[in-house]
Amino acid sequence: MAKVATVLANDFEDSEFTSPKEALEEAGHEVVTIGFQAGDVVKGKKDGTAVTIQYGIEDVTPADFDALLIPGGYSPDILRGDDRFVAFAKQYMDDMKPVFTICHGPQLLINTETLKGRDITGVKPIVIDLKNAGAKFHDVEVFVCQNQLVSSRTPADLPAFNREIVKLLAK
Question: Which of 99, 117, 130, 149 sits CB 3.0–4.6 Å from 135 for a disulfide?
Answer without folding.
Answer: 130
